Amino acid sequence: MLKKIMTLLLLAIAVFAFALPTSPVEAATKKVYVATKSGSKMVYAEGKSNARVIGKMTASDRLQRTGSRGAWIRVNYKGKAGWVPTKNLRTVSAPKPIKPASVKTYTMKASAYTPYCKGCSGKTALGWNVRTQKRNVVAVDPRVIPLGTKVQVFVGGKSMGTYTAADTGGAIKGNKIDILMYSQNAAIQFGRKTVTVKVL
Is 0.85 surpassed by the pTM of this model? Predict the structure, then answer.
């Protein structure tokens, strides 16, 4: 009889313990970031070791701490809640924002030339023979735009196309470019213009 009573009592305790609500999540009151103490650590869907694994937190990750419960910390993992044992984490500074690459643009005086002009060899400063193989080339001052640089040229806001800074010229100093054209008439008609040069 006593054995039966003890069994029922243990069963009642187990049911009561199972029915107890889990402790509430303590929300983070300010932005705090965490990283692993060493290596990669598993990220779980819930704050318990038998929960489903949803990913890995690598040593280079800096994740925002969004809350905690018991021995677990909740983090923002790829836009959703993830849980990592507190013992695996350390507090770190916020990750540095990635700055967009700066784009250089220049306002320049532009002229035009052909590879067939008197005294022209047809070879650029990069050694390209533009008489035998047509290329989009501009002559530049290498101190301003290094040779080999890709640029886009705009006249009045309209793109003329993409060119390679592949040539130089005695008169091309500072903010000046010379645009290679394959027609003498086209070069004459272009004349001299103020252009915008965007470095790609």
Answer: no
